[in-house]
Amino acid sequence: MPEIETNQRDSELFSPxxxxxxxxxxxxxxxxxxxxxxxxxxxxxxxxxxxxxxxxIALQRPGIKRVIEDPENEEGRLIMLDPHKVxxxxxxxxxxxxxxxQLNVNPQISKYNLELTYENFKSEEILxxxxxxxxxxxxxxxxxxxxxxLNLRDHQLPFKQLIGQVMIDKNPGITSxxxxxxxxDNTYRNFQMEVLSGEENMMTKVRENxxxxxxxxxxxxxxxxxxxxxxxxxxxLKPGDVLFDVFAGVGPFSIPVAxxxxxxxxxxxxxxxxxWLLHNCKLNRVDQKVKVFNxxxxxxxxxxxxxxxxxxxxxxxxxxxxxxxxVMNLPAKAIEFLSxxxxxxxxxxxxxxxxxxxxxxxxxxxxxxxEDVQQRAGAVLGISMxxxxxxxxxxxxxxNKEMLCITFQIPAAILYKNQTxxxxxxxxxxxxxxxxDKAFSEETTQIASDT
Length: 451
Description:
Largest sheet: 7 strands, mixed
Strand order of the largest sheet: 13-12-11-14-15-17-16
Structural class: alpha/beta
Oligomer: single chain
């Protein structure tokens, strides 16, 4: 028997045939390939006992059976072995040979020609074999219900239909693959997309943190990578608190918070988001706790939010025990909207611990993103934010681009008219001081590795 090369890498042995390189229209039949695998011939009644003993050297390849019938003996079975660990009869360890002897199994290695097909290859293996050598391979995507949302790079575009079909084939439940073809920079925060393969239907339903959301993915904003952040903010609020969700989307902040018996004022400028926000509030049975608005963010802050703050921070505010939170999840522009808080209220300021807490999201490409966000927020508000804010790293969006959340309690000197700004000793009671650059760097490294 010819020797099996033990130094041949698994990725080479089990990769698709070289002839598929450059394929742009998926031909599944072109992925057939035959590889030689070492096998051990055994009696079928001892297979279970033997497999436990041969765990170290048994073939571990998803989609390939490790035990098959022996075509030459209906009472026999063939155990597939790892070609990188078994090259001859001498490849068995002493303990394995003892078991083989106890079970009366001949340790002689045979060879078997295993036929691999398209079904046996992983999506990453298929794309790596098809795309030009040395180019990045898209194997990950955001799942939004039945939709796989990809962000293809320029060199992948000639293969876009094939990539979309592979994603559908290799991911159960995915029936449509789409590619984003512009940035989220329009008024309504959705993006243009093209359907690469599968259904044209963009109506989808997702579950996040035990809540259900339905929407038309082509007309609203939804990012499944923010589920942890939605939970983090929700956990900060207690029953009875009030949340103002300035850019609410279809409700991933508002609905979980409302379920905690909080009062929620939710707003979105996009008429489609507004429609699905109303729908999802009913779907999750919180429509009696959420007041929904379809306004520009600034108009929402200077209208409904201002009116409610006047009530909440009025003469009876000393008796209030709940907190006020304002979430501003529009990372590309939210910091600009902070100007709406300047001199928003008239009259005498209430106690500082009762003032609203803001959670404002932003992107940063700066070498020190936390400091960058603090400086930009401070420039809009006209104060230094270093001592009165904390910055949380949400996720690594792209190389050298972070998404962050700056949290601070609005100073009375900013929120109320005709107040003198003196913040030298000011630090919002509920907030911790800004973490050190080292701590932030460590968190950045950890989250980037998890993304």
